[in-house]
Write a structure and sequence with these properties.
Blueprint lengths: L1 H10 L7 H11 L5 E6 L5 H16 L2 E5 L2 H7 L6 E6 H4 L3 H23 L4 E7 H4 L14 E3 L9 H11 L2 H8 L4 H4 L5 H10 L5 H22 L9 E4 L4 E7 L7 E7 L3
Parallel strand pairs: 1-4, 1-5, 2-3, 3-4
Antiparallel strand pairs: 6-7, 7-8
Helix pairs in contact: 2-3, 4-6, 8-9, 8-11
Amino acid sequence: HKQEVETWQLDDTNFVETTASEKLLLAISQQDTNVVTVIGPKGSGKSFLIKHAAVKIQEVYQYVIIPVDGLKKVIEWFDPGSKQLFVLDIDKACHSPLKLHHTLKKWQEQSAALQKRFNESSLKLMACCSTEIYEHPEFEKISLLHQNKFDLKADANTFSDKDIETIATKYMKKEDVVALTTSDMKEDLKKLHNFPMLCREFSEEKHENLASFFVEHLSIISNATEVKRANTNVDINMTNSLTINPTQTVQGMFVNPTFQGCSLNFNFYNKN
């Protein structure tokens, strides 16, 4: 784990402290807080955030950071005499629908076995996952990972005016920072959970039009919200289906039970 953690420490030099990062660090630092699960949209920097918090916990409280890919590893490497901080990227561990279902079933069993160890030691665990996975019916049965939720979409954890300016200053030219922080869309920028990534992209790819770049991404967020609202009234078919039409085309649809509205269509044509 040492080499991986050293990479985190190197990457951490590019991290920009925000209101959310300060609150997360405070939460996991509490003596009576053993587990925190960070949730939020994809691309919102969840994994970078928990790695940053882990590095800080190591620096301040001398915890040993142990990256893991599942709860089984926590059981295997648990040392009651050591101050351990396990870090788990759930999205990475559950990278496909089939993997997700199998993994969550296993974690339900392992969660109960781990609970007592967390209660009786200084062991800590920070995890992160997408909101969709966190709200999955099988994930809700994993009590250990539901102890303390840190939601990046919560109003208290969104970017502040200071955060927006600090992040923009990290990646962009001074004149672009001024233009961005004094524009009419300043308040809307706080809705962009991937704002740091966008600032970096704007700078590295040398986009010329600042306003159009961010307006485009704000439009994407707005459209995605409307689609999500529309989908709340749609019943999702959780099974595979096959139908044969008169033209002898077999059409099938696999509906991902984890992510509402995501589907994969495939066609097989009978050339005869």
